[in-house]
Write a structure and sequence with these properties.
Length: 287
């Protein structure tokens, strides 16, 4: 469970940098037409949310009832795949040191944060991959010790209904996107959020409020305002959206599927909804 929570935190750290511009007042969409034998469904998630804020919309359950399988960004139902991802996430070059990217004072403040909140020694923090450190940092933005993951809940729903779960991308695909956090500018995230912890918490609160209200315009504004968004948008959002479309097309032609991905991937000209419509599919909101 700790591994899946860390992956959810990693996914949320991607969400903080991604955008959603669809304005249909829903997070559930039906995909039909263009030769599909039966409709498939698309649902926008938030990767980590407190239990008091979690809700399961009837449209999601209905979509689950009408499909034969489920696709997440990654297949979190396969423990071997999850373990493989965690192993890959923890890999860093032999010469990597966080201290190489920060001043001595910044490094002291950053390692102090992780020692206080996660009991990690400075030497260990110095060798930990940036995405792991960012994922742990994001965990402190929530107001609850054990946040829930929509992906985990959807995986449980699929298991209860005896429906297989697969992934739209491989571990290596996602790690290439996560790897964008390793450029030198991205290391500025650490002292910035640690010195201004309320900024991260407020951004998270606003994002959750927008998600619960299905107010994707507000969600977009929160995410767009985050540091370094423009530098990682192509890698963690647009390129991944485009790579998912052939997978969605192939799977949907075989049988109806529920696709559950971060809500930030749904909207905009290069969002999954627009890309599917450009391919000739009808994508309509389900309320």
């Amino acid at each position: 469970m700790r591994i899946k929570r860390l992956l959810s935190s990693a996914a949320l750290s991607l969400t903080i940098f991604t955008a959603c511009q669809a304005q249909d007042g829903t997070l559930t969409y039906k995909i039909s037409g263009n030769g599909l034998p039966q409709p498939s469904y698309l649902y926008g998630t938030i990767h980590m949310i407190c239990n008091d804020d979690f809700y399961m919309p009837a449209t999601l359950q209905s979509a689950m009832d009408n499909v034969q399988s489920v696709y997440l960004e990654l297949d979190l139902a396969d423990s071997a795949k999850v373990a493989h991802m965690m192993k890959k996430v923890m890999e860093v070059p032999d010469n990597y040191r966080l201290s190489n990217y920060l001043t001595a004072d910044e490094f002291k403040r950053v390692t102090g944060f992780y020692q206080t909140n996660f009991y990690l020694d400075p030497e260990k923090v110095d060798r930990m991959p940036p995405i792991v450190l960012i994922s742990l940092m994001v965990r402190t933005f929530t107001a609850c010790p054990s946040p829930r993951s929509y992906e985990h809940e959807i995986t449980k729903m699929a298991a209860a209904a005896n429906k297989p779960v697969d992934g739209l991308e491989t571990v290596e695909d996602q790690l290439r996107a996560l790897g964008k956090y390793t450029d030198s500018a991205s290391f500025r995230t650490f002292p910035d959020f640690i010195d201004n912890p309320e900024k991260g918490r407020e951004a998270y609160r606003r994002m959750v409020a927008a998600y619960k209200a299905k107010d994707v315009r507000a969600l977009y504004e929160v995410i767009k305002s985050q540091p370094e968004f423009h530098k990682v948008e192509d890698a963690i959002l647009i390129n991944r959206n485009r790579s998912w479309i052939p997978v969605i097309e192939a799977a949907s032609r075989k049988a109806p599927v529920l696709y559950a991905v971060g809500a930030g991937h749904l909207g905009g000209e290069d969002g999954v909804i627009s890309l599917l419509r450009q391919k000739g599919y009808t994508v309509e909101p389900v309320r």
